[in-house]
Design goal:
elongated, single chain, 5 helices, mainly alpha
Length: about 100
């Protein structure tokens, strides 16, 4: 699976480089393909929820986990998000 993820990850920048040269129809297809590839890579890397909205229940569980001292890396795994997403969300929720 990791080999497939590596290949797909390499394709995304190549597709982005082709966009300026593509017709409008091709751009739509390439953007759709890039989104699909990104979702596959994210699922394979344990980041299935990357780019998805947070629910109120997830927010509450995240704040609770943080208050209990659960490590950012562990919270990231629990929520299928990157550590950066966890930190950003905590900052947003705590500053509210």
């Amino acid at each position: 699976m990791q080999e497939l993820i590596d290949i797909l990850t390499e394709l995304i920048p190549a597709i982005s480089e082709a966009l300026p040269l593509a017709s409008e129809e091709e751009k739509t297809d390439l953007i759709g393909l890039t989104k699909s590839l990104s979702e596959i890579v994210n699922r394979g890397s344990g980041l299935a929820k990357q780019g998805k909205s947070w629910s109120a229940a997830e927010d509450a569980e995240l704040v609770k986990g943080h208050a209990e001292g659960i490590a950012t890396a562990d919270l990231a795994k629990r929520f299928s998000r990157s550590e950066g997403a966890i930190k950003s969300r905590l900052i947003k929720l705590i500053i509210k």
